[in-house]
Amino acid sequence: MTRTGRQMRSTIREDGTLTLSLEEVAVGDPGDDEVIVRVEAAPLNPSDIGLLLGPADVSTLVETGGAGTPSLTLTVPEARLPGIRGRLGQSLPVGNEGAGTMVAAGREARALEGRRVGMFGGAMYADYRRIRAQDVMPLPDGASAMDGASMFVNPLTALGFVETARREGHKAIVHTAAASNLGQMLQKICLADGIPLVNIVRSPAQAGILLAIGATHVLDSTEPGFADRLADAIEATGATIAFDATGGGTLGSDILQAMERVALRGMTAYSRYGSDVFKQLYVYGSLAAGPTMLDRAGFGSQWSVSGWLLFPFLRKAGPDIEARLRRRVADELTTTFASHYTRVIGLAEALKPDVLRAYERKATGEKFLIDPTRG
Amino acid sequence: MTRTGRQMRSTIREDGTLTLSLEEVAVGDPGDDEVIVRVEAAPLNPSDIGLLLGPADVSTLVETGGAGTPSLTLTVPEARLPGIRGRLGQSLPVGNEGAGTMVAAGREARALEGRRVGMFGGAMYADYRRIRAQDVMPLPDGASAMDGASMFVNPLTALGFVETARREGHKAIVHTAAASNLGQMLQKICLADGIPLVNIVRSPAQAGILLAIGATHVLDSTEPGFADRLADAIEATGATIAFDATGGGTLGSDILQAMERVALRGMTAYSRYGSDVFKQLYVYGSLAAGPTMLDRAGFGSQWSVSGWLLFPFLRKAGPDIEARLRRRVADELTTTFASHYTRVIGLAEALKPDVLRAYERKATGEKFLIDPTRG
């Protein structure tokens, strides 16, 4: 018997036409060190949406599939094609991580058979995933697939921020879009580890989420007096590193300026080169469109703005540190690393225009989960 | 006898009024480890102009001094005052570096008496400079004060770029505003040391300056097809680090995008995270006004944009490396590190409105030298 199942695919043609579809694919038999998992939960992270939709213009969305074979078409503006030349013409599976139940196992992976596991490695928006046993993690007893669906990207990213801050000698952290699932995890880690965290959000509701889990410093960037309150929070905590999910606009620049303002308060003599305090901004997301605008006039001379992504971080950190971080995630899966979803959808549902438009907005506090067993 | 002399001062009051003046100050007797140098040449570097004029609006310039006591007044827009709060109300001497003849020496510095020296440490726009003996460098026989006037900032910066590139594992360099005195030094060092250099200029005349000293890669950013030619030069050299004097605008972003484009050419499989190649942009100047605009969409995930300044670099590099770099400057003072000036002015002349407007433009290829002995 050949097992087959649906798999979500994203393809961009040379002319900029992006097609989303569900393909019926053969799962294949597991190799000796492989397992087959029935996918029961897979989150829609911003990075997944990035691969799914590329730089397409969502206003061009049209439904092109028939009944039972959902398919959507969007257009990528020509100016954005050079940046994605490498994927043109390729039918790409989507979905970084997920969880489900093991339904078959190769010779060397029998011990895991029947277990519920979390897993990581792409192509998770599918009925089944054939995967190497070393890329799955058995869930603790009693944990649901939903509990294990997001046990890699957000948890390891939040832990990676703290690890990065420590390794680079910073004693407190600033975080933006801080009420996200990731932001809540970061706040819990910082509370447990005694690292002061300055949370920046954009609404009272978001502030409430963080205050409820014990946050001390929560600033709403839409309120008057934000710049002064940010500087005060930075002074109170000693934060010299920031992780920014927004990317576009001036928020990152505002944070570096606030850090420098605080550093200058501590100086006795004027130096036209600014303070000696090194300030690091890591950009790890693009929630805000447009270029990053750096008003360097207020930075002093000791600053750096860099990209931060999980995979390069883990590669640099090495397998020992990755193993330590993964153990912590497993140990605290339903506490520190609990994720919250506002909507659970089926695979076919994810390709309905109104549903796609809803998760594409990436609103903080909203999070979608795909459960392929729902159809 | 008390020796006195003129000293140029820049003062910004709390209300944003900037005053430039020449003060008659007592030079004082040299301490045991000090010397007194009659200043005969001091360059107007962009960093000097930055201290002299602060963030003042040059269009507000008015002459306020009487005959024999030149004085100018400018206004700093209120929005720019927070960034310079530390200097408000202070009368600051100006001029990072210079050269001249030693006219007095303390007990421990007699060996230098009568020698012509280069020196570094501020307050050089003056008739005399009292300074620690360790902060002066005797000039080679036959070298003029003009030869020694710029033996610190530009030479050590150019050497610092190469040192930074090597220490951070880059094998070729991109440089902007590359026809400057600094840029010419960098090209000569790179030729001598076998490091490929991609020069970016803004006119055929500037390109000519670099080609005449042996540059291979000279690109005019105002010409059509610049982006493609930049990528080709980056591919030919393998450059993954850039030093940018312009700061404002998109040029730095364009360079990072070109580096990533080249890195992607070498990849066989598509990755939404871009290439594995780490790309570093250092911003060391602000020749172009406005914020640095980073279009991260084309950067991949491995990039960093940082401030670069000589003094923090030297502090991090340590005294051994600084001594090695200084020795090279002394050895190659009239060859690799020869500076060219387009105009020599007196101290009082530097405070004439039309002269100030001319050096404030910081046009590449134009360079002013102050010789206080001219009056």
Biggest interface and residues each: A-B, 46 and 47 residues
Report the span from N to C terminus of chain A.
22 Å
Give the CATH level 1 class of the largest domain in chain A. Answer: Alpha Beta
Task: Please tell me the total number of domains of chain A.
Answer: 2
Instruction: Give me the count of strands of chain A.
Output: 20
Structural class label of chain A: alpha/beta
Protein name (chains A, B): NADPH:quinone reductase-like Zn-dependent oxidoreductase
Organism (chains A, B): Labrys monachus
Keywords (chains A, B): NADP, Oxidoreductase
Domain Enoyl reductase (ER) (chains A, B): 16-370
Features:
homodimer; 375 residues; alpha/beta; Rossmann fold; 2 domains; seven-stranded mixed β-sheet; 28% helix; globular
Summarize the structure.
The structure is a homodimer of 375-residue chains. Helix content of chain A is 28%, strand content 29%.
What does this structure look like?
Chains A, B: InterPro entries: ER, GroES-like_sf, NAD(P)-bd_dom_sf. Chains A, B: This is NADPH:quinone reductase-like Zn-dependent oxidoreductase. Chains A, B: Keywords: NADP, Oxidoreductase. Chains A, B: Residues 16-370 form the Enoyl reductase (ER) domain. Chains A, B: It comes from Labrys monachus. Two copies of one chain form a homodimer. By secondary structure, chain A is α/β, with parallel strands linked by helices. Chain A has helices at residues 46-53, 145-148, 153-167, 181-193, 204-212, 226-237, 251-265, 310-317, 319-331, 353-360; strands at residues 4-12, 17-26, 34-43, 57-63, 71-75, 91-93, 97-105, 116-120, 128-132, 136-138, 173-176, 197-201, 217-220, 241-244, 247-249, 279-283, 288-294, 303-307, 343-345, 368-370. Chain A has two domains: 3-150 and 339-374, Quinone Oxidoreductase, Chain A, domain 1 (Alpha-Beta Complex); 162-314, Rossmann fold, CATH 3.40.50. In chain A, strand 4 (57-63) and strand 5 (71-75) form a beta hairpin. In chain A, the strands form four sheets. In chain A, strands 3, 7, 8, 9, 10, 19 and 20 form a seven-stranded mixed β-sheet that branches. A six-stranded parallel β-sheet of chain A has the order 13-12-11-14-16-18, sandwiched between helices. Chain A has ten helices and 20 strands. The first copy, chain A, starts with a strand and ends in a 5-residue tail after the last strand. Chains A and B meet through helix 1, helix 7, strand 17 and strand 18 of A and helix 1, helix 7, strand 17 and strand 18 of B.
